[in-house]
Write a structure and sequence with these properties.
Blueprint: E1 6-12, H1 19-39, E2 47-57, E3 60-67, H2 84-95, E4 99-103, E5 109-116
Length: 132
């Protein structure tokens, strides 16, 4: 990504997640960000990608990825897309028990993921000792 062409802005609150949440969340963020870089600014178009994370109160968080690029096609429907990237996002959103909303602002595109932190559950009893 050419930083002179595409600016990256963060609007994030400090947050620390259990690995069970951090892994799928990071993969979702990577896919949404990669799609914005790849599709929102064709040619040498300049623009901005904004990544946000905030807690809405209680246990819920909202991750947003938005850009001021060319926008989504008029008939874009996340549920109707069958690309591998969309399938990955859909699977990871389900893993987080979250919801993903697609916005179509006047300029660009916006994706909002609402989720609650998952907590890792050990698969083995921590009191068990390894015997040989």
């Amino acid at each position: 990504m050419d930083a002179r062409r595409i600016a990256l802005k963060f609007e994030m609150e400090p947050a620390f997640f259990d690995l069970a949440t951090a892994n799928p969340l990071g993969l979702i963020l990577n896919e949404l960000f990669s799609n914005a870089v790849k599709h929102a600014f064709p040619g040498n178009r300049k623009g901005e990608i904004i990544i946000g994370l905030r807690r809405t109160g209680g246990e819920e968080y909202v991750l947003t990825v938005r850009d001021d690029g060319v926008g989504l096609p008029p008939n874009f429907d996340l549920a109707g897309k069958s690309s591998f990237g969309v399938q990955i996002i859909d699977s990871l959103v389900s893993q987080l028990n979250g919801t993903l909303t697609v916005g179509k602002p006047k300029r660009g595109a916006s994706f909002e993921l609402r989720f609650r932190e998952l907590h890792y559950t050990p698969r083995l009893d921590p009191g068990m000792e390894k015997t040989s």
